[in-house]
Each structure stands twice: as C-alpha cells, then as structure tokens.
Amino acid sequence: MLMEIFFGAVITFIGMFLAAKITNFYIHNGQLAIVSGVVTGVGFIPGIGFIASLISAFALLKLFSDSKGILLMVIVSWVMSILALMVFSKII
C-alpha cells in the first residue's frame, strides 16, 4: 500500500509540475510536493477518493498560490498525470 501511494505521489507531482509549466501557474516545488502527496493519499479513500482528491487539490493550490487559473491547473495536471503514467507503463 505504501509503495502505491509513493508511486502515485510521484506521478501526480510530475503531472502537476508539467501542468504548472504549461499554464504558467506559479507555485514552489516543495509546495507542489505537499499537494501531490496529500491528493494521492486522499485519492485512496474508498468510494469518495476521486472527488475528494479533486477538491483537496483545488483547495491546496488555492492556499499555496495566488495565481489565477486554479481550475485549469487541476484539469491540465490530471491530463499530464495520465500521460506520465502512460510513459512510465511503457518504460516498465
């Protein structure tokens, strides 16, 4: 279970990092690591994990950054996370 959370947090961090670069969303990497870890952990809650992780991502990004376009950042980060997962699945 711990390995899945770690791997999920790494994939989420990569997706959020790429999304921040694409959307010009200003947030420090340390804050992005905290957001990705919390979002991944919340995503493992049975039944409501997906919705709760989206809400927590939005809330934490709003807390850590004054940038506009938080919703765009969340949407693009999920797309980038899926693409990063596809790349890693081809490598492994």
Number of helices: 4
Give the proportion of residues in helices. over 70%
Number of strands: 0
Order of helices and strands: HHHH
Termini Cα gap: 19 Å
Instruction: Please summarize the sheet with the most strands.
Output: none
What proportion strand?
under 5%
User: What ranges have pLDDT less than 50 throughout 5 or more consecutive residues?
Assistant: none
Shape: globular
Q: Mean pLDDT, rounded to whole units?
A: 91
Number of domains: 1
Word description of this protein:
There is one protein chain. The chain is 82% helix and 0% strand. With 92 residues, it is mainly α. The protein has one domain. The longest helix is centred in the N-terminal third of the chain and has 22 residues, at 2-23. The chain is globular and about 35 Å long.
